[in-house]
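This part of the workshop introduces the protein records we will be handling. An example says more than a description, so a record of this kind follows.
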Amino acid sequence: MTDPKSAEVLLEALPYIREFRGKTIVIKYGGAAMERADLNEPFALDVILLRLVGLKPVIVHGGGPQIGALMKRLGKEPRFVGGMRVTDAETVEIVEMVLVGKINKQIVGLINHHGGQAVGLSGKDASLLRARRRGHRLPSGEEVDIGLVGEVEEVNTEPIRLLEDNGFIPVIAPVGVGRDGATYNINADLVAGEVAAALGAEKLIHLTDVQGILGPDGTLVSTLSRKEAERLMSAGVIDGGMLPKVESSLRALEGGTSKAHILDGRVPHAILLELFTREGVGTEIVL
């Protein structure tokens, strides 16, 4: 016998599909969601479903662990300063090989294998991500050179719009190009925020390896304002890898994105649960 609850689930999604139809959703894909083989297919199917019901997903991916693994295989020890990878000329070549040559094509291949139409891009394609060198200041106030690490100066939205408007799913590797032609390694979280802001995306979704943002008492914060986020950051409650995700979310919101979300990418179909159910999951960040 058919379970009527299946129909109820579809009907619950209907107002959200109607609300988000034609809107851009930027998804930062990384962590367990990307690294665990059992979560790859659910992610690809989620993205394809979004496209089929009229939303316009844009994916920005990372690849830090894979870059570190290849560096070690090549006999080069990864170095970090304040969470940022020190990137010399040789390292940036490895970064580009892994992000653009390997991971980007794997994600594109995965989506296309399951019936989607994905196209891979790096920041060099059509000068998609114009970058400048990012300085780094230690807590002591000392400025240190971390090499070819960049920050986004400008996003060329034209190639993304062209793909979106023709039914394709853009998949972006966070490698930028400077005005001098130099290649820059850019934090994928920050790229996602800049892309969402430039596109005026409806939502920015970060897939992470935790439930969401946890408060001082260790419980999940379901909605977080900018003021509260700044308070938790200064108190050290939000730290480490969560900092660029929150920074990225605030940048997107300031640029016109309606809402930003930090979700547990270990939960299968977390994207669909957030977008198409009343409860949602993870932490929602608002201005």
